[in-house]
Amino acid sequence: MKGSLIAGMIVNLFLIVDPVGLMPLFATITRDRTRRERHRMIRKAIVVAFLVLAFFAAVGRHVLDYFDVGIPAVRIAGGILLFVIGLEMLYGRISRTETTDVEEAEAASKEDIGLTPLAIPLLAGPGSIAAVVLFSGMAEGAGGPLLVIAALAVVMGSAWVLLRLTDRLLGLLGQIGIKVIARVMGLLLLFVATQFVVDGIRASGAFAGR
Q1: Is residue 209, in this structure, part of any structural domain at all?
Q2: Rounded distance, CA 96 to CA 85, Å?
């Protein structure tokens, strides 16, 4: 049971974090950097993003309880946010909830993009934060956050590998191939987001008795 739960979290978080879709942007804003500098930035970004998301996985449910926010509300709000991100991915764009054109231009001139914008908000953005809070609340028992953190470790490990292979994969698949994969992932994320909203409405009892 736990195995299937973690597997579902891994798939969903991978779609939301979308390291494949980040490759063209990462290649563009680090085009003047050496391989060693790129790898250092990736390492920093992965560590920071993991710690940020792990923090929200650990305390997210407590914050929701403090504000008396139920899981149905988180499902609905998270689903809407993920739907917007998935729609942006479907059209081959980095979500505007994660970066703006101005931020991307500034990133290209920065000495080190490991902390911003790569870690925050590209890897650990509003969508991924909402997702870990949601998954932490959905997982039953005190060990729920640990399951989310375990899934996070797998996703961030995958992102680390993929970003290090950016040049090789872009050369193999090309910009068009990467965008096609990112759009397919965006479509899948739309399905996931819609299901979150449907489950949230159903759990809230909004249509009970109708």
Answers
A1: no
A2: 8
Segment 92-106, tens digit of pLDDT: 766 555 555 655 555
What is the tens place of the pLDDT at every residue in 141-152?
657 889 999 999
What is the percent of the chain where pLDDT is above 70?
A: 86
pTM metric for this prediction: 0.86
Domain extent, residue 89, equals 2-204
Residue 46 lies in a domain: yes
Give which of 190, 19, 4, 22 is closest to 94, Cα–Cα: 22
**Total domain count, the chain:** 1
Res. 205: pLDDT tops 90: no
- Asked if the structure places residue 123 within a domain, the reply is yes
